Amino acid sequence: MRKYLENCWLLGIGLMLTATANGQGIGREIQPIPPAIQRIFDEISATLTVADNHLERNELDRAIEQYRRVMKLEASIYGNRGNGAYGLAQALTRADRPAEAMDAYAKAVWWEERRNDWSVTGPPVIEFAMDYAMLAARQGDVARAKEMYYFGMRQFNRYGGKSYEPIPFLVVFDPDPSPEMEVWEYSESNLRAAALMAKVASQGSKDRPLIDEVRKLAPNWSFPLAFLAESPVGKPNEEFMALALQLARNDQERAWIGLLKSKDRIDLTGFQLRKASPAVNTRTKPAARPM
Question: How far, in Å, CA of 291 to CA of 185, rounded?
């Protein structure tokens, strides 16, 4: 999946750069990527593969070296953002160098005035935002942890997908007048539980070790059990569905869980509720763009 996303990102950036260089607009023919830029894209892709392989084997010093190389290549095109900085942050986190990892995360994300929101180019946005939020929470940076968590929440399931969000994902860490929102007391462990689950759900995969960790951190939360119960094909898992119903907060949540059995689609309910949530949509514009 990462390789696929990386290739889409490289192609998209290449087309945008080419269109800009040739004065192209929407509806105009897009010219081929110039060979010099294509060579840089190819080198970024190859170096990322090497770096990712080192990270997978826990060869952290080598991974860090290669991700820094990717960042230099990316900077030669459009600046220090993207896959290189995210990979570097992950490697530095594993190497127990959190301050440096926080700096790498800051280089990957920037404030986009047009959208009045944060933006990141390259990595899967929700995974990036939740990883950044969890590290910020570990470092005691509550404001940044919440900011990145809500940034990820604003992107979560934007286009729907019942297998990703069997019931609406509504956990927030600030007072919210919206009755549907699930307000939790902020703590590092609570934020980790919510961020991990958002990360797993956004991938659409039932990663049992991570879900089991979430259930230990938040044993009274119905969402992980509803997620395990949901099946895009066939009947839902009755055991997990029964457990989710036991933990449901109210009749509305029980009704949502009940839809797993009827196979009715929830569609964009969760996204629409998050979009209307004052907590989720609190944005903190930085004094200066982190670089």
Answer: 32
